[in-house]
Amino acid sequence: MNEKLKTEADVVVLGGGIFGLASAYFLCRFGKKVILIEKKDVGSGASGSNEAWVWLSSRKQAVLPFARLSQQFYANFEETFGMDVEYNNCGGYIVAESEEEMKMFKPWVQGRWNEGMIEMQLLDAADFHARLPQVSKHVVGATWNPLDGCVNSILVCVALKDAIKAQGGEVWTQTNVTAINLKGNRVHEVECSRGTIRTDVVVNATGSWAAQIGKLVNVDIPILPNRMTVLVSEPIAPFMDTVMMSATYVFEELAKAKKLEAIEAGEVEELEAGYVYTQLRKGNLLLGSTEDFVGYDNLVNFECPVAIAKCINDLTPPLRNKKVNIIRSFANFFPYTKDDLPVMGAVPGVEGFVMASGLNGGGMALGLGCGFTIAQQVAFRDSMIPIEPFSITRKSLY
Hints:
The chain is an alpha/beta fold. It has helices at residues 18-29, 64-75, 77-81, 99-114, 125-131, 153-166, 210-215, 248-253, 256-264, 303-315, 317-322, 363-380, and strands at 5-8, 11-14, 34-37, 53-54, 92-96, 121-124, 141-145, 149-150, 170-172, 177-183, 186-192, 195-198, 201-204, 224-233, 243-246, 272-279, 285-292, 326-336, 343-346, 353-357. The strands form four sheets. An eight-stranded mixed sheet has the order 6-7-5-15-16-17-14-18. It has a six-stranded mixed sheet with strand order 9-3-2-13-20-19. A hairpin with a 2-residue loop joins strand 11 (186-192) and strand 12. Helix 1 packs parallel to helix 6, helix 1 (18-29) runs parallel beside helix 12 (363-380) and helix 2 packs across helix 12. The protein starts with a strand and ends in an 18-residue tail after the last helix. The model has no long low-confidence stretch (mean pLDDT 93).
C-alpha cells in the first residue's frame, strides 16, 4: 500500500477552471509556493464547456474593470504564455426581434454608456442588416460592441496549467479534496486523495461546487449550478465573423432571481431558449442555448437541442438552408449568484479561506482579471481593483 504524500504550500487553490488557474498562475508570479487541486482535469467544468465568449456587452458595471483587465491579458496572451488560444476580438451583437425589445434597448444602452461602456452602439434595422445580411429580416435592430470576441477556452486552460508548472507551481488533477482542517479558526491543512498539504491559505475557486467546499469549513456559500446547453456543428466555411445573442438574455437576466424563487417554491420551470452564435477558427459553430436549474444533472434533454435549433432556424435561415450537421451537444454548470456578481475575498470567521467563484457564465471574459486580483489580495492584502463589493457578506447575495 502506497503511503500518501505529505507536503506544504503557501497557498492551495481548489478548482481547475480559469478562475483557479489564473489565481494560481499569478500567485506563482508573486513568489508564492502554490498547489492547485482539480477533481477531474483542468477545464473539465464550465471553463472548458461554454460558448467561448470574451463578452463585455451585458456585464454589470461592477465587473467591467475585471473584463477590461482580462482583455489586456488576452491581447498579449501568446507572447506571455507561448500559446495561440485563438483569441478573436471580432465584436459582438445583441439583436432585438421586436419593436418592444428595441424600445427597451434605448434606455439600456444609455445606461451602459453612463456606466462607462462608451464603445457600444445602437443600430437600426437597416444598419444591422447591411452588416449581417445572413440574419433574418425580422430583426429590427441591435447593439454592437467592438470589445466583444471569442477564444478557445480549452486552450486557455491548458496554457495556464503549463504556465503554473513553468513558474514552479504544482497542478494535481484527478484529485478529490476530502477535508480542510482548521487550527482554531485558521486554515491549517488540506486533505485530499493524494495526501495532506500543510498550508495557511485555501482559495475556493470551484465554481458551481463552491458550496460543497464551503461545507468543509462550515461556511454557507450561496452559489448554485445553472445548467446551460450548447450545440456544436460540423466545421463549415466562414459564416459570420462575430459573436451574437438575442435580447432575450439581457432582459430575462433581470428576472432570473424571481425565477429561481419560483423554482424553490416548487413551481415547475418552463424551459427557455435564446440565440447564441460563435464560430471557432476550425469552422465549428457553437450554437445555443438553454438555461435551467436542475441541480447537478448535466444530461442533455431532447427538448434542449430542439429549442436551440428553433432559435437558430428563426434567426439565421441560411444555416437551415445549408443543412449544417450538429455533431454533438454539451451541458455544464455556470455558478449562479442571486445578484449576478462573483464572490471574492476572505471569508469572515475562517482565517485563510478565500473565495474566488461565481462568475456565472463570464469566466472567459472575467477570469484572468479576477484571478490576478485574487492573487494580489492573497499575496499583498491589497489589489488594484477593490474587491469589497464582492464579499460573501454583501446583502444582495442573499
